[in-house]
Design goal:
Elements: E1 2-9, E2 17-21, E3 28-31, H1 34-44, E4 52-54, E5 63-69, E6 81-83, E7 88-90
Antiparallel strand pairs: 1-2, 1-5, 2-3, 4-5, 6-7
Bound molecules: zinc ion (ZN).
Protein name: Chaperone protein DnaJ
Organism: Symmachiella macrocystis
Amino acid sequence: MTTRIHVAKALTPNEHWSAWFDENPTLAFAGESLSEAVDGLLEIAQLDSATLNVDLSQCNKGEVVFIHDGKTCQDCDGTGRYIGLYKVAKCDACGGSGWV
Ligand SMILES: [Zn+2]
């Protein structure tokens, strides 16, 4: 499955970078640089950074968009969630991204 990762520089005094998934913006990571934000997002989602390519057609001023080619998580069927008897939690297998 192909997904996109957005990375944007905040217009706040600390000017940190935020990275999030196109389909799941609630799973995000912030860092002091673009690479720190993307690396952190990929780490919590347990994805490999070697499969990233820049999507130039989607990039805007202050925002870079990457394409990640991965496989849908079999444990959660791509939802990123584990639904148990008493609670809904982030899927352990994919870290909540829905991809592996
Ligand atoms: Zn999963």
